[in-house]
Fold this protein.
Amino acid sequence: FYPQIVLTSTTGISAFNINGVTLHSFCGVGICNKSIDKTILSIRKNLELYKILTQCKIIAVDEISMLGYNHFKYIDSVLKDIRNSYKPFGGIQVIIIGDFYQLPPVNDDFIFVNNNALWKSFNFHTVELTKIWRQTEYDFIENLNKIRIGNVDEAVINFFEPNIKKN
């Protein structure tokens, strides 16, 4: 027996690719631009959404690098109130998936910025996937990893330059 896991992501395209929904849509918070009290009132009036949120056990969030701190905090506050719990996300287990070296949030900080108290309260256990499945050529992998961490030196440029097509 496996508990139901709600598959969410931070963008519509990535949610579609996992047969899920956006985190914002699932939680009923829209673009997090209303007061938290108005959002909570709106959720409480939507009995179906309210029931789903109060009974949810696990949320998986893909493309986590794109979830900004302010939206993360907003969703956490809403879920704590809706579920009447002081636990992170109102006691819903959260599984986050993604690469923090990928796209950052738009007009916001990463959710783990400054090792903040909210981030720490989730007490995430990190599982790092180390096997690369899409590439096999060692030099290519090494140069991609250098780019990933912002270490673009002359050797990286020389490696990729022959593959640049002019016009």
Remarks:
- The radius of gyration is 19 Å.
- Helices lie at 12-17, 23-27, 36-45, 47-55, 69-82, 117-121, 138-148, 154-160.
- The CA atoms of residues 11 and 126 lie 23 Å apart.
